[in-house]
């Protein structure tokens, strides 16, 4: 529930949007933004003011492909200790999940940071793999132990890290739906700064606003986007000035540049997106799970990207809302997820199921 002063401010922002008379569809690419939007009923408020808002591919667990999950399962079933964040454990594939592998006796462990995984590797002799998932927000932390002279010999990283700008370009290039502006994730921009988003505005003529995660942040970002449209501008603006600096975090950016190479890779629901994922540089081959365990990964079976009937990919491209999937709330629930969008706390389906009937 809005505090009184926030409620009055929200009404002023919404009136300002309505008074501009701009009818537009904006997309955000952040699960935390989606949580705020659904939790506080912002979608309906914005619709009344003339703005439609949709979630795109903002959940890192959701965009990780079934093939990548199957690779992690294959490693675990072949004697490698596999560590990952909790949301990854329940992602279903046609060969099961990491939790299924654990139930069958494989050594699969939940970690809360890569430091946990490094400590576990030090405490054992057999090989251990950390499954690195996330956008530019989490990628720098994956880099840190790899640059340490004390990095255990039996430790390696299976990188599923993605980067934001290429998927924005792909969304626009596919031309499947109208997008009039992007609300960009503030936590990503804390690392990257603003410059990486500018080519999207320059090439596609679309306004963008980097936003924080409070309800007023979301509303204000929509106001700023509408104002750009009304004034005929297509720029990258920063609503989240209390934390995001134009230059980002130079140390984190340098660390990523020194550790990863951008590579072509498919995302769930998308074709191969050029230079959209992060692979370890050749100098880190001894800690790159795709090199260290190449023979084991060759045993990974082919898997379907989605369960029959699951439309997670369409949700991630903003083509449908979660409730429009025929499996939503019926066979697909948090207790029995059919796809990662219902697994991850940042997944649109999970958020819609848990909060969709609530207006706090």
Indicate the radius of gyration in whole angstroms: 21 Å
Average of per-residue pLDDT values: 95
CATH classification class of the domain at 61-163 and 268-297? Alpha Beta
- Please summarize the sheet with the most strands: 5 strands, parallel
Shape: globular
Kindly report the spatial arrangement of strands forming the biggest sheet: 2-1-7-8-9
- How many E-type strands? 11
**Sheet/helix structural class:** alpha/beta
The SSE order reads: HEHHEHHEHHEHEHEHEHHEHEHEEHHHH
Low-confidence stretches: none
How far apart, in Å, are the first and last alpha carbons?
A: 5 Å
**Portion of residues within helices:** 40-55%
Can you give me a brief rundown of this structure?
The chain is 41% helix and 15% strand. It has 18 helices and eleven strands. It has helices at 4-20, 31-39, 42-48, 60-63, 66-77, 86-89, 98-103, 114-122, 139-146, 164-174, 186-192, 198-204, 215-231, 250-259, 289-292, 294-297, 312-316, 348-355, and strands at residues 24-28, 51-55, 81-84, 108-110, 128-132, 155-159, 181-185, 208-211, 236-238, 260-266, 272-280.
């Amino acid at each position: 529930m809005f505090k009184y002063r926030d409620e009055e401010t929200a009404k002023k922002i919404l009136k300002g949007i309505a008074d501009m008379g701009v009818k537009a569809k904006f997309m955000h690419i952040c699960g935390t933004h989606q949580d705020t939007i659904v939790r506080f009923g912002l979608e309906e408020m914005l619709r009344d003011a003339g703005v439609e808002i949709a979630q795109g591919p903002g959940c890192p667990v959701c965009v990780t492909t079934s093939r990548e999950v199957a690779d992690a399962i294959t490693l675990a079933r072949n004697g490698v200790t596999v560590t990952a964040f909790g949301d990854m454990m329940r992602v279903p594939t046609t060969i099961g999940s990491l939790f299924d592998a654990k139930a069958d006796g494989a050594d699969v462990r939940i970690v809360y940071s890569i430091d946990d995984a490094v400590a576990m590797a030090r405490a054992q002799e057999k090989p251990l793999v950390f499954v690195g998932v996330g956008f530019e927000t989490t990628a720098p932390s994956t880099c840190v132990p790899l640059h340490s002279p004390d990095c255990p010999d039996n430790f390696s990283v299976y990188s599923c890290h993605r980067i934001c700008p290429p998927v924005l370009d792909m969304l626009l290039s596919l031309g499947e739906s109208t997008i009039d502006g992007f609300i960009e994730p503030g936590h990503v921009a804390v690392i990257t700064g603003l410059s990486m988003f500018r080519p999207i505005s320059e090439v596609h003529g679309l306004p963008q606003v980097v936003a924080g995660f409070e309800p007023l942040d979301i509303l204000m970002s929509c106001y700023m986007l509408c104002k750009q449209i009304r004034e005929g501008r297509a720029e990258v603006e920063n609503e989240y000035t209390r934390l995001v600096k134009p230059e980002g975090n130079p140390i984190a950016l340098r660390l990523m540049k020194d550790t990863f190479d951008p590579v072509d890779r498919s995302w769930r629901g998308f074709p191969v997106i050029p230079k959209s994922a992060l692979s370890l540089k050749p100098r880190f081959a001894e800690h790159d799970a795709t090199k260290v365990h190449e023979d084991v990964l060759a045993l990974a079976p082919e898997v379907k990207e989605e369960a029959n009937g699951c439309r997670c990919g369409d949700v991630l491209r903003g083509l449908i809302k979660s409730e429009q999937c025929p499996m939503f709330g019926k066979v697909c629930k948090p207790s029995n997820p059919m796809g990662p969008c219902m697994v991850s706390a940042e997944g649109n389906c999970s958020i819609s199921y848990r909060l969709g009937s609530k207006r706090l």
